[in-house]
Amino acid sequence: MSKKMNVEEAHEYVKGAVTRFIRASKEAIKLGAHESAIVDMRSSLTTRSFGRN
Question: What pTM was estimated for this model as a whole?
Answer without folding.
Answer: 0.65
